[in-house]
Amino acid sequence: MKTELQERADVLAANLQRSIDACFEVLRSIGQLYGSAEWVGRQDFERFVQPVLLRHSGIQALEWLPRLQECDRPLFEQTVQTEGYPNFQVTERKADGQLTRAAQRPEYFPVAYVEPLAGNELALGFDLASDAIRRSALERARDTGAIAISGRVELVQETQRQFGFLVILPIYRGAPGETIAERRDRLQGFVLGVFRVADVVRASLSGLNLDNINFFLCDQSDQSDEAFLATYEAQSRTSACQSSRGKELSGTPPLLARKAVCSGQFRL
Q1: pLDDT digits 0-9 by tens, 26-80
Q2: Which of 36, 145, 184, 209 is deepest in the core (most CB within 10 A)?
Q3: In which residue ranges of the chain is pLDDT below 50?
Q4: Where are the beta strands (DSSP E) in the chain?
Q5: Taking the domains of the chain in order of start, what are their residue ranges?
Q6: DSSP letter at 242?
Q7: Would the pTM of this model clear 0.85, i.e. be above it?
Q8: Is it true that domain 4-201 has CATH number 3.30.450.350?
Q9: Coil, strand or helix: which one is 186?
Q10: Closest to 167 (Cα-Cα) out of 142, 185, 141
């Protein structure tokens, strides 16, 4: 028989899963847009995703990342600049967290469209292939032809160093193809759903009775020192998703759901 704590943990996990499933459907609808149109311009993308964002407030941003060759980079940057972004360039993040002009490499996947733009300005132009965690998720989505979820990342638009994650759908020219080689050749770019963990946790906690429960939310598929996503403290009724909290908990062994006199702790 399940304990009350285990039942609440199951409800929380189900709420979190619904948030992710909703983003899957959003990305698939955007994928259908790209599949049915010869070209999706910036205004086309904006008009399509704005109603979606109103229905799914937990999504931090929706983005389009075209596949960009090095030889096409100057024209690409100039084109975006003429669309009203005079300082646009393809960027990457340095070790200190500052954005800088991306180094030369054969291929880029920069954020060309991002909605809403307000609050996500720093993401515009960021090359996701410049970061190992993001690049791994992009490659997994590209090679499988399926939606992929990244490990935890610090979003470039995030000012509080809170964690986020990405849900990624590859877009191909025509059919994806039967082999990995065909999918790599036909790849056109990616559409992304960007989540702040804090927003997902906040939405998932709505309506739940967590008066006596503290919990850690962790990615059990990740490295132990990078698994932490968020924590919730019942006494203060607050959740924390800062990277500093993750370092504090790094190396902590997984906690099984358990009944306690005053509190319970579990790891999803």
Answers
A1: 899 999 999 888 899 999 999 999 998 988 877 889 999 999 999 999 999 999 9
A2: 145
A3: 1, 243-268
A4: 61-66, 68-69, 91-93, 99-101, 107-108, 113-115, 148-149, 153-154, 163-172, 187-196, 215-218, 228-233, 238-240
A5: 4-201
A6: B
A7: no
A8: yes
A9: helix
A10: 141
